[in-house]
Each structure stands twice: as C-alpha cells, then as structure tokens.
Amino acid sequence: MRLAKARIQNYRSIKDTGEFTLEELKTILVGPNEAGKTVVLKALQQLNLPKGVDGFDEIRDYPRSLYNDITTGKIKAAEIEVVRGWFSLDDEDKKLIPATFHQCHYVRSKNLNNKPYHYLENAPAAVYLKDLKDDLLRLGKHLDTQSGTTVNSEKINEFVKSFWKVVSKESTPEFIQWFESIFVEIDEDNEKEIARYKKMEELIQNNETRDKVLKILENRLPVFVLFNNYFKVKPVIHLEHLANRVEGNLMDDDKFYDYGNLCLLKLLGFSPRELSTIGKTASPSSNDVEGLKLYRDTLDRRSYQLDAASIRLTTEIKNIWNPNPKRPEAEKLQIQADGQYLKVVVEDELGVKIELDQRSEGFQWLVSFYVVFFAEAMDKHKNAILLLDEPGMSLHALKQREFRLTLSRLAEKNQTIYSTHSPFLVGPDELDLVRVVELKSREEGTKVHTTISSSDPAGLLPLQEALGYDLAQSLFSQQKNLVLEGLTDYWYIDATANLFREGGLEKLDDKIALVFANSAGKVVYYATILHAHNLKIAALLDSDNAGDQAANQDNLVHALGNKNILRTKDFCSGIVKPEIEDLLRDTLVSIAKSEFGVDVSAVIKKNPSRPIIDIFSKEIKGFSKYKLAKAFVNWTRSNKVNSLTEEERKQWEKLFQSINKALK
User: Fold this and answer.
1) Is residue 391 part of a domain?
2) In terms of DSSP bridges, do strands 81-88 and 2-11 run parallel, antiparallel, or are they unpaired?
3) Alpha-carbon span 556 to 563, nearest angstrom
4) Claim to verify: residue 480 and residue 593 sit in the same structural domain
5) What is the pLDDT of residues 444-468, one digit of tens each?
6) Is 494 exposed, middle or buried (0-12, 13-18, 19+ CB in 10 A)?
7) pTM of the full predicted structure?
8) Within 13 Å of residue 559, how many CA atoms lie on the same side as its CB?
9) What is the CA radius of gyration of the chain?
10) 402, 426, 456: which is the final residue of a domain?
11) How would DSSP label each residue in 228-271?
C-alpha cells in the first residue's frame, strides 16, 4: 500500500496545505528554513504511528492563534481533522480483496483528539438505510397485510429515522436482526416480494463485504517511521543511568537525547534495566551448578542477541553505504556489552575497533537511522513508509549526491518522503518528484505545492542551485549538446528516449547532453556559449510563434547553421504550429483523461490539425503543461515503448535519427 495523496489542516504552522500528491517511490519536500517541512512529516506520521510514539496534543499541536476556539468551546478537538491520507493498493493488497474493490483508495484520517477514521473511495457505494426506504415500506405493507397488523410498518418507520446510517451488523444491529427474521413471513408464492427481499439482502451483503475489505486494508496500513537528526545513537551508553532515567520518567524535558539509545535496546530485545542487571550480576560459586548454568545462559543470550543485531545492521549499512574497498571507509559495526556500558564500535580494515563517534558524521547518521528504522518498524519494516527530515546534511556536498542514490535504493523497498534544502539531494531528473513547501504568512500558514512554483524565491533556491550545478557540469563536459526550450521538453525527450532504449528501437545517442534554456528566446544564449567552446550543438524548437522567432535569429543560425536547428513540424505532419506534445498526441489524450478526468477525443476528431496543447488548454479547466509532462514521465515508468502508437513511434524514431545525425 502506498500513500498517493495527503492533506494536512489545523496543525502547528499549518492552516491547510491543500491536497498534494506523493510519488510511488520517492517524494522530495523542498523549502527554506521555517517553511514547515518538518511539521508536514510529523503530521503524516500520525496516519499510523509506531508503538510508543506520541499522538496529537491539542495544547501544543493546534495552531496557537486559533487555540482560543477550543478553550471557549467554540469547536471541539473531536471535530478537528488534522491529517488525511489516500492510499493506493499494490498487488499484494489486491490479492486479499474482491476484484470490485481493486481500483479503490483506502482513505484514513485522524482528528486532533487522536481518533482515526477510515473509508473507501472509488469503491462500490455503501448502502444507507435511506437507500432501502421505499422497498422496505412496500415490503412492510405486504407483511402487515398478511398479518392484519401495522407492526412491521411501524418498525420500518422507526428504523429509517436513522436514514444516515450505513446498513451493517456494527452500525444497525437491530435492523439486521429484524431483517434476517422476516424472510420466513413473506408469502412464498409472492415472487415480487421475495425478489424485493433478495435485492435488499444482496445490497446489505455488499456492505458486509465492504466492511471486511476495510478491516483487511486497515491491518495492512504501512507504519510511518520518522527519522530526524536528533535521534542519535550514542557510542557509549551507561545502562544503570539510562534505566534510572526511564523508570524515573526523567526524559520529558529532552526525550530526543535518549531516543536513539532506547531504539537500540528495543532492537536488541532488552530493557535498560535487564542489561544493567546482567552487568551487575556476580558469578555464582563453583558449587552452585544450577546458578552457573543460569548465569552462563544469561550471558550467552545477551552475546547472541548483540551479535545478531550487529550483523543485521552491518549488512544493511554495507548495502546502502557502498564503502569503497580502496579507501578506509567504515563498514563493520559491533555492539558490545561491558559491565554497565553498552558500546557501539566500528571495526576498520586492520581489525581495530573504534567508537562510533570517531567516525564521520555521515556514517553516524546512517547507523542511527537504521537503528531507529528497525526498532520502530520491527517486523513491519517491509511495509513501512520512511519520513526523513533533512537526511545526510552532515555529508560532504559530493557525498550527498552519492547519498541521493542511497535514498533511491531505500525507496525501492519502502516509499520514502524526505525534506531538504540541499541542492545536492535533488537530481536534475527528479524535479517531477519535488513538492515545494512555503510559508508566505502566518495567517495563511504552510502550503505544499504539487508543481515547481513558489511566491517565495527562497523556496525554489535549492532547485535553482541544483539545476545550476548540473548545467555547469554538463555545459562544457559533453561534446554533444541538444538545447531545448524548457523543462517539459527535457522531460518528454528524456523519458521517451529511455522507453526506446529499453525497447531496442532507434535510440538517442547516450553521449548527447540535454540542456534546457527555460524559454525559446533563451535558446540562442545557450547555443552561443556552447558554440564559443567549440562544442557540437543542435537545438529543438517548437513550431509555434515563439519557436519561429527564435529560429530566425541571426545569432542562432550563425552558431548552429540551419541543419542543426530542428523544428517539431518536421516530425509530425498535418498539425498547424505543432509543439513537442504533438509527437505524443494519442498517448497524451489518454494520460490527460486519467490525470484531469476530461476526454478530448471527440474534439480532436473535429480539429485534427489543431495543436494538442491548444485543445487541452480550452477543454480542461486548470490545465497545466507541467502537470501533463509529469504525468507522462510517471506513465513511462510503468509502460513499454510498444504502448505508444505506431505513428508516435515512427515520429520519435525520425526525431532521434535527426538529432543523432546533427550531432554526429
């Protein structure tokens, strides 16, 4: 099960984020300090908390400026929804429920009083008492006519007063009991009334199936594991002192200080007091055979559990950290007990054991993350959603770029949502995964944008820096460069090229760097700079007015020559002023129907030469080129090149051939 969409309200700096979508594998929350990224992650965790994690506290979590509404009784905590999540079902979920529910979303919300609610969206409709009213009254009339009484009609009138209730054994037990008892009273020769009863019985049974599906999906709800930089595992833990703090409830003022340590002990399967007691236990005398056996078994159990945890952590960390065998990078972890001390040490290539805090901050972060992850998720870690608050900030900038791949590997097994303001944790091919978090004013509260937009320049700064870095790296490092008008053009070219590579068709040369200029007018600047460095350059321009104007600039023609200025009209015939989207005309119609809920097929048949973007813009309210391109990128991740129409494949093959030839 994956979190597909969420909405957060009435929580700390958040008044209402609005609904925002989340990616199937990895979602990146970007924004400046104090924008509310951490608050968003904390609210999402409340959808399904690990054991031992605190729920909402109305005094501290309800927006302070609105708290007077609660104290005056104007509104109750039980009426305040804080977080709602829409979960899509995976194949394992679908195996356990009827096919009629396979396309539904499991929706879970939680109010400020910590009471959760759940329901199914896009599933067979629930049946309420009001839906059965007419048939019940007619059936009641039939039964009363047979018996010469008004008992059944009176009962039905009493039941339907609660018309808003869903019909089920849990919600309407008295009605279900009565309904199941009356079948024998129906005249067995009255086929019409028997059919009426059977129809209502089937509807009620659908409700029972719906309740079972809800229960199954609730039990499969992923646990949300939140990790931030405060949850550090200390290299040396004094067990007696920790046990005293836990038992004396002395951690309230700084619960983060010991959180990593407690997670480590939970992972080991011991309480602080248990390990402390073992460390203080004196060896029995040689005459005490039973005592010696018990003492040895206790020490062996402790040793085996410490070894098992050490091996597990080492294995996972090696898979993710990818230590370079040619460099002295940390890789082997050991957890040791020595009297009242529990130590976390790292063994180097010489076999020397060094305390964890003497290794890099990045390695310490990774060890602490896995300890908290395994402890909180426990046996559910295969069905956990990871919430990472500013991960890897202690890593060197270039190591952060490597760690970005680590996050992608984590996301393959566990859906991952992380916040960052580091440009090195956002890849140039990951802009479709970004959600911009901003706080324009306290009155409006934190907002989450599903497109790359923000009224606060600081919110977009990490993205601009990431693009600037990659542009600087690619501008002069690649001999072959294709300059595109904008980001969406980059997405279409890159995603389609990947489809063709996997499908074994004409592919775009892997050595060609894709450079987008943010507008047709700026293509000439990029082309001029690259030309000045004696690099091979081609440009792909739409055949709209902006593309025509750019293509006719003398500087561009001088830098590239006419043969290297490619136009979309050369690759899709019959369209007036086509843009790159017209090369995917049929596929985008299908994607737009799924994404925006509007089918423009009929309009296209009437206007076969009209650009597809013009049609979308007029027919789809709130249409976004960015959102459409992002939906196409997502579509390519679950489809093959043969999913494109034959005409589309021919057009793209011709385009890739022309690009390769221009940059040969």
Assistant:
1) no
2) antiparallel
3) 11
4) yes
5) 889 998 766 545 555 555 555 555 5
6) middle
7) 0.69
8) 27
9) 31
10) 456
11) -TT-PPPSEEEHHHHHHHHHTT--GGGHHHHHHHHHHHHHHT--
